[in-house]
Amino acid sequence: MIERIVLINIKNDVSLDNVFQETKKVIPILPGVISFKMGKVLNNENYNFYLSMTFDSLKDIEKFSPHPKHRDYVDNFLKPKMMDIVAYNVEVE
């Protein structure tokens, strides 16, 4: 099982609630996503939005990343609202 952890610094003038609402609409319908969770980062001044998605394998992430709905969400919704992003893939037991 692979957990993809994403930390994003959303701009101060952007509503995190708006980001949460859009993320709830998009992430669950993307191929390969088994489950996801998100929240507000409380103890890191570099990032304020946390997203974690679970996949069966790295191959599922490779299919997920270029998916048109994912690209639209990232390129047209998130990128204009963020300052920085970092992502990790973690093999979990």
- N/C terminus separation: 7 Å
- Topology order in helix (H) and strand (E) letters: EHEEHHE
The stretches of 5 or more residues where confidence is low (pLDDT under 50) are: none
The shape, in one word, is globular
CATH class: Alpha Beta
CATH architecture: 2-Layer Sandwich
Task: Briefly note the structural class of the backbone.
Answer: alpha+beta
> Which fold name is given in CATH as the topology?
Alpha-Beta Plaits
* Largest sheet report: 4 strands, antiparallel
Global mean pLDDT:
95
What is the share of helical residues? 25-40%
Percentage of β-strand residues: 25-35%
Number of helices: 3
* Count of DSSP strands: 4
Radius of gyration: 13 Å
Count of distinct structural domains: 1
- Strands in their spatial order, largest beta sheet: 2-3-1-4
